């Protein structure tokens, strides 16, 4: 399949996955897929069952959770690396996503 044969959703997923460590906006993701934000939101939800930005947050939390079982020592560093401004915000989002705190996962 040629690069120009990919769907906007496949392109959006690639864009999100390739930039998990960076801040990414809905406008940037839509531009990568060459669609409007409105179209991306609707099509992404139908294709994945998630809103675009919820998917982005979920993927970042999943990546952040990987070092926890090995005993990552600095949870604040994990939170900051995942794009959260505080330990509390990270803990709240983590619990909402996984049903347990980062401390419990560690």
Structural class assignment:
mainly alpha
The poorly predicted ranges are: none
Largest sheet: none
From the spread of the alpha carbons, the general shape counts as elongated
As a percent range, the share of helical residues equals 55-70%
Indicate the radius of gyration in whole angstroms. 15 Å
Mean pLDDT: 88
Query: What distance separates the N and C termini?
Result: 42 Å
Tally of alpha and pi helices = 7
H/E element string?
Answer: HHHHHHH
The number of strands is 0
* Beta-strand percent range: under 5%
Task: Describe this protein with a few key phrases.
single chain; 106 residues; mainly alpha
Please explain how this structure is put together.
- There is one protein chain.
- The longest helix is centred in the middle third of the chain and has 14 residues.
- It is elongated and about 40 Å long.
- The mean pLDDT is 88.
- With 106 residues, the chain is mainly α.
- The chain contains seven helices and no strands.
- It starts with 7 loop residues before the first helix and ends with a helix.
- 64% of the residues lie in helices and 0% in strands.
- Helix 1 crosses helix 2 and helix 5 packs across helix 6.
